[in-house]
Specification:
The longest helix has 17 residues, at 70-86. The chain is built from 22 helices and 27 strands. With 639 residues, the protein is of the alpha/beta class. α3 links the parallel β4 (56-60) and β5. The strands form 6 sheets. A 7-stranded mixed sheet has the order 24-23-22-21-25-26-27. It has a 6-stranded mixed sheet with strand order 7-6-3-4-5-20.
Length: 639
């Protein structure tokens, strides 16, 4: 048995470990962050439950920390009060990025974690099945200790050889993305094996697992070995260590071999994490901004390597370098050992420990500028500047290029940090609150609006196509994530006004004028963030169905959770749809009940096609009731 299935089998509550079959697994831990957490906790409150059913639930504040108005702090206070009421650990703003903090403080080998952030798989570095999901799925997991998912297949990535000194973990995952693409991991777990794994630190593995989300993978996982134990000792948690590994004769669905000794520094070009080339191919490109941090590359080791390169040097005059350590503990350690001073003396700006630039929360690049970032996504406009070019690189390449003023791999020998000191972490617990009082009054600010609900399924639905888009539409396209809109994550009616605004600024108007309708997309529709607002907003706008060649895993689940039909079409059927004609979906009740194709009629031309609707038995109930919250209410919480 492979390691992924070992952990899944030890937590299996329903179903069989057969690829594509729906399974239910026991969840040990959950996490939320404030961008998705407010809605998740509104949904938890709607379920009327008491203390959470998982061993550890954590509510992090790391996204919306730019308090230019009351909205963000109101949401933080709402989350803090809900956490106290339901026995959830609350992480105050400034403590750090949720995935870095979860790894440091709570990750445990062989456990399960589900989080309302697509980069929750970071903790796969600790031998966990750690899955990103929509907020409602996480709320249900907190309430019941259960999570439903399509049983994934497993891709074996076999690492051999040893990387050269200027090749980093970021280059390894960029190489995997180059090979598999942003949709190559959909409904799969990526399991890393081979002799090459032994040379990777725990935080190297975390970087790789983190960006497995960009493959569309359910999660990624590494075995637990001496490197795992070394990290847990560093965190003062040696007692949590358990050795875990796949069987010698483990079976996998697919295999990818990577010889680490052949790798060179890599870069992902705009506007996709899989647009990967060697740095040497575009070396010399002038840059304006460098960002080091995010949940991908903000570990103590990443910071120390960047500081070593910057020590005694000067950031180029035309470059803005910003650095955000991943946690308050890391920031304190950098302060104590002098590395922070090396960064500042070089001309770096030190940001608060949080997500910041990665999600467009400040530090937007120059108009038409070039920004090198150690983050995980470079979708168009995500940085806050629509015409900027964002390139994804390792911390080493980022720091060096900040000094040079252009993309470079011209390292000097004295810049290399041979080994990061494995010193005990300065554990800062003052940012964590663990109070529990079931009588706590939940704080509700004026910006918090009710959760939209869907309608029960009807046998037929009519409407126009209000938007037609191409491949790889991300949740950033559907509901933009930037400093102007993030404060309204608890206010769906306001967010709806900006839906698809960077794709078609007339979408909202058309949806309102047509009382909803249909959206048509291409391949990998809904990739990227786990944010369920990309389904909540269409639900609010009365979008009843979305046609696409394929759907990203988390977004498909979020659509079903909101009672929206995810209908799969062929390339030939894509041109059947236009924005002039009226369409009608027929035989829906029977199609859902009996696993039939759905008939779509063009009422203008009277032509018709059959499109695919594939639902598990549980998903059928959600669609019939008009969404998961409705199903829970109708069944008395037994759904």
């Amino acid at each position: 048995m492979n390691l992924a299935y070992k952990v899944l089998s030890s937590h299996l509550l329903e179903g069989n470990l057969v690829k594509g079959e729906q399974i239910c697994i026991k969840i040990d831990q959950t996490l939320t962050q404030d961008s998705t957490g407010t809605m998740a906790y509104l949904q938890l409150e709607a379920m009327d439950v008491g203390r959470v059913a998982v061993d550890r639930a954590v509510a992090y504040i790391d996204h919306n920390m730019l308090q230019t108005g009351f909205e963000n702090m109101d949401d933080h206070e709402f989350i803090r009060s809900v956490a106290k009421k339901h026995g959830i650990t609350f992480s105050k703003p400034g403590n750090g990025v949720c995935h870095q903090l979860q790894l440091e403080n709570f990750s445990k080998p062989g456990q399960t974690l589900v989080g309302s952030d697509s980069h929750t798989p970071t903790c796969g570095a600790m031998g966990m099945i750690a899955i990103g999901a929509g907020g409602l799925d996480v709320a249900v997991a907190m309430a019941t200790g259960k999570y439903y998912v399509s049983c994934p297949g497993v891709i074996q990535v076999n690492l051999t050889g040893k990387k050269s000194k200027w090749v980093s973990a970021k280059d390894i995952i960029l190489k995997v993305l180059e090979q598999l693409s942003v949709k190559g991991g959909v409904n799969m777990v990526v399991e890393y094996t081979g002799e090459g794994v032994k040379s990777l630190s725990l935080t190297d593995r975390a970087t790789i697992c983190n960006m497995g989300a960009e493959l569309g993978a359910t999660c990624s996982i590494f075995a637990c070995d001496e490197k795992t134990k070394e990290y847990l000792i560093q965190q003062g948690r040696e007692g949590d260590y358990v050795e875990l590994k796949a069987d010698e004769d483990a079976v996998y669905d697919q295999r990818l071999d990577i010889d680490l000794s052949t790798l060179v520094p890599m870069v992902a070009k705009p506007h996709s994490p899989d647009a990967v080339v060697p740095v040497k191919d575009i070396e010399g490109m002038k840059i304006n901004q460098v960002v080091i941090g995010s949940c991908t590359n903000s570990s103590f080791a990443d910071m120390m390597r960047a500081a070593k390169i910057l020590k005694g040097k000067k950031v180029s005059d035309h470059v803005s370098l910003v650095i955000a350590p991943g946690s308050s503990s890391i920031l304190a350690m950098l302060s104590n050992n002098g590395a922070l001073a090396d960064m500042v003396h070089a001309g770096a700006r030190i940001l608060e420990c949080g997500c910041g630039p990665c999600i467009g929360m400040g530090q937007a690049p120059l108009s038409k500028g070039i920004s090198l970032r150690t983050i995980n996504r470079n979708f168009k406009g995500r940085s806050g500047t629509n015409d900027a070019g964002v390139y994804l690189v390792s911390p080493e390449i980022a720091a060096l290029s900040a000094i040079k003023g252009y993309l470079s791999e011209e390292f000097e020998d004295d810049m290399y940090l041979d080994e990061v000191p494995s010193t005990p972490f300065i554990k800062n617990t003052n940012f964590f609150i663990n109070d529990y009082d079931p009588n706590t009054e939940v704080y509700m600010g004026p910006n918090i609006k009710p959760v939209p609900r869907g309608d029960k399924l009807k046998d037929s639905i009519s409407g126009k196509v209000v938007l037609k888009v191409g491949d790889n539409i991300s949740t950033d396209h559907i509901v933009p994530s930037d400093s102007k809109l993030l404060p309204y994550r608890s206010n769906v009616p306001h967010l709806a006004k900006f839906s698809f605004c960077k794709v078609d600024d007339q979408f909202y108007t058309r949806a309102i004028q047509n009382n909803g309708g249909f959206i048509v997309g291409g391949d990998n529709y809904g990739q990227g963030s786990s944010r369920e607002h990309a389904a909540l907003v269409p639900n609010y706008l009365k979008i009843k169905a979305i046609f696409a060649l394929s759907f990203a895993r988390i977004h498909r689940s979020n659509l079903i959770n909101n009672g929206i039909l995810p209908l799969v079409i062929t390339k030939e059927q894509y041109d059947f749809f236009n924005d002039n004609d009226e369409y009608e979906l027929l035989n829906l009740l029977e199609a859902v009940e009996k696993d039939l194709d759905v008939t779509v009629v063009n009422k203008t031309t009277n032509k018709k096609i059959q499109v695919q609707l594939t639902l598990s038995s549980r998903e059928k109930g959600m669609i019939q009731y008009g969404g998961l919250l409705n199903a829970i209410k109708e069944t008395g919480g037994k759904f």
